[in-house]
Write a structure and sequence with these properties.
Layout (H helix, E strand, L loop, with lengths): L12 H12 L5 H8 L3 H13 L17 H4 L4 H4 L30 E4 L4 E4 L2 H10 L1 H10 L4
Antiparallel strand pairs: 1-2
Helix pairs in contact: 1-2, 2-3
Length: about 150
């Protein structure tokens, strides 16, 4: 019986562009990557699945920005915990995370003002920023709501 010789996976410019795009932001949609790379969405889908199925891409994992964690809370954390998968972190107590206003980029106090969208939430420091954001992105918010069947 002959042994089957495995063929090496040769990455071309499209594969490398997909990997770079994922490295920048692992949450990007296939459509976003296709636009960046200037290829079709089905091409990105097939290439991504191939890269994943061959084991080159093992997972898309979060990278924690420890500067966003409140200093008092951060001092209680073992820095190695933040380098592990989120599912393995056992903190026991709540973590205070510093967030910025989605509109003015200013700090948000204890009670953020929230806009709930079909796919996410946006946080604001005050009702004015919340209203200005809703006005600025009114069309997009309506389109998302229609797509989700909320209107």
């Amino acid at each position: 019986m002959q042994s089957i010789k495995s063929l090496p996976l040769k990455l071309d410019a499209i594969d490398i562009a997909i990997l770079k795009s994922l490295a920048e932001d692992g949450r990007k949609s296939l459509r976003q990557m296709a636009r960046e790379i200037n290829v079709s969405t089905p091409t990105v889908k097939v290439r991504y699945e191939r890269l994943f199925n061959t084991g080159l891409i093992k997972s898309i994992s979060p990278i924690f920005d420890t500067s966003k964690i409140d200093r008092a809370t951060a001092s209680k954390l073992d820095q190695n915990q933040l380098k592990t998968k989120a599912s393995k972190i056992n903190l026991g107590k709540p973590i205070n995370v510093k967030i910025s206003c989605e509109y003015c980029k200013g700090p948000i106090g204890d009670k953020p003002h929230v806009v709930k969208l079909p796919t996410s939430e946006r946080y604001f420091c005050c009702t004015s920023c919340k209203a200005l954001y809703k006005e600025k992105y009114k069309g997009r918010i309506e389109a998302l709501s229609k797509r989700a069947g909320k209107i």
